[in-house]
Amino acid sequence: MSIFKQYDIRGEYPKEINEEIIYKIGRLIPRLLKSKNAVIGYDIRQSSKPLFRSLINGLSDENTKVISIGNCTTPMLYFASFNYDFDLAIMITASHLDKNSNGLKICSKNGVSLGYDEIGKYLEENINKEFKKTNKKFNVKNLNIFKDYSNFILNNFKKTKLKIIVDSGNMMGYLDVRILKKIANIKTLFNKPDGSMPNHLANPAEEKTLKIIKKEIKNNNYNLGIAFDGDCDRAGFLDEKGNIIRADTIAVFIYEYLYKNLKIIADHRCSKALLEIGNNIIRSPVGHSNIKKNMLKHDAEFGMELSGHYYFKKFHYLDNALLAVLLIIQILNKENKKISELIEPFQKYFPSEETNFKVKDKDKAVWKVINSFKNYKKIEKIDGISLYFKDFWFNIRKSNTEDLLRLTIEADSKEKLKEITKIIKNLIKNL
Fold first, then answer.
1. Can you give the pLDDT at residue 384?
2. Which of 105, 255, 338, 410 is least surrounded by Cβ atoms within 10 Å, i.e. has the fewest?
3. What pTM did the predictor assign?
4. 4: β partners
């Protein structure tokens, strides 16, 4: 399978991604983008530093001036890109994936993400070219952006007495914790950076990674629980009882208390609860580029994806998990109520998690499911196909990044959710 994905570059180190591949990518990018300067950051994975050295060698051999911001979160790299006006920004990370994976997130000016169509296809077509190395020693300048980033993020946020527990997963969350400690009482789990990920995968989308933080919350008195992914572009939220809060519930919460009557962009898989609270909810296909494109088109204040990405106009329409956390803290501090009480009105439906199916013929599977349901009230084709009925709806779509079929269901009752889930799973199973 190719390392050049829809939105980024990812693969197993060193089998798929290694120093040689990264050096070549460093040579190729400036040839396409004509970039004269670049800012590079990297996560704490054990392979990130060696890949960083290869990347700067490749870029420098193309006469691109390189600035390093060292270990950072992906939102910090975005900030460096737009705040200091770099032509090119590259983050070395595999985000929420395991310790044996690594990759690149590539951005042009102002943190605009470049995916397969913009750069991946070109890299894939040219990666087997041979390049002559100069073997020069390059002087890479270091730039410490933490103070500027912290001041930017904390602007207008006041200190609170809220007690919050944060699980960094031994990855880049420790940097966001440093900022959070300036406004709240923070207790940490696995905050020491360790690229071997000795405790659990830094992926809040997998419930098993939240086992320890859930236990800590239940045994202690916390107002909120936070779990960051590996590069901190996503965050998972837990209430004061240790219950996981879905990303669309967080989005409803933020919209209701902060962005009422302003336009927001929502992942098309979001709950009906979000759509029911205002007329300014505009739904979008899944994916960073789709959300940002629609935010720009509609001049939206806020955007969200069910995967836990939150996008903000004030952050140049880019995703920033820390900013979402700070907004939730601000609301809790102002309302002086438990978060479970505040979000209860928005949790009236019963959604499934997105379920993935490996099938040989994805198109056949989609149409078998769709043709098995009659008398639907509405059909949508924002991303895949969604069918709406009186007491449930579902979306079935082909993955943009993997060889998978994805299914999301929401119903008015647990019983209905269970019934429809069983029907659709059997349809796909018996292809």
1. 94
2. 338
3. 0.95
4. 9
